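REQUEST FORM: STRUCTURE PREDICTION
Request ID: SP-0412
Submitted by: Lab K.M.
Chain count: 1
Length (residues): 302
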Amino acid sequence: MTLIPATAAPAGETNTVRGVAFMVASTIIFAAQDGFSKALADNHSAVFVTMWRYWAFGAVCLLLLWRTGFRAGLTSGQPRLQILRGVLLALEICVAIAAFALLGLAASHAIFAFMPLLVVALSGPILGEKVGWRRWTAVGVGLIGMMLIIQPGARALTPELGVALLAMFMFSAYQLMTRRVARTDTAMTSFYYTGVFGAVTMTLIGPWFWSWMTPTEVMMMLVLCMTGMGGHYLLIKAFEAAEASAIQPFTYLQTVASSAIGVAIFGEIVSPWTILGGAIVIGAGLFAFWRERVRAKAAKSV
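STATUS: Completed
RESULT:
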């Protein structure tokens, strides 16, 4: 899953084309990471794999903080919530990687695609944001797509589906927390808290799930960590270059790329219902993103 900063570049300093290019590149890298994570999770605990991913992520954050100053970088108006969201995301990634191993990349990402719509639905009652009827309609349409993917009644809710749904709900909670802290903190502050406290969390629990890797798996883990650092750097550059509302829709490319990896590399078989449901969910999500951008522009013009 892509780790999205809370805010974007200041108005007047945006370059949308450059931002989109950075976002697309980072999305492809994160999709490749999903593939490596699934391959490693077939023989190792998802917690163990996540620990290594976070060690690389945390190293990037510490390097950036060393350059900018730890006090300045970690100054927050809501430090407890920042720490909580950092811990939650680390645990969510463990669950997501477990879903990749149990359910597959394509089916898992088809379910994860509903997350932005769930955030829209919950942003009203939890964050007090105004959600108009058009975005509520998008949520309803997306829910229909989700039902096509899960097919309740046609098949039992398996533990594999339950793990993917749990990851989706956990990531939705993380995104709601991210929107909350964005009211007081910068995108980079949220980014630092995510990496540092996620790495601390995985360092505390990861060694309990330690397992020895083969030379090939060591190489895969090194590639996973290196691409993680590159992906996060490109993600930072994307949000420095362009407004979030302009580039966030491109995060759906991770769903497409990860699903393609699942089918081409791991031989996953995707049912027509999953494809149709995923397409409906993505379409509804893109519409919701578009409506949010329209509302943001209208608010600026007032």
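NOTES: The chain has 13 helices and no strands.
Reviewed by: T.R.
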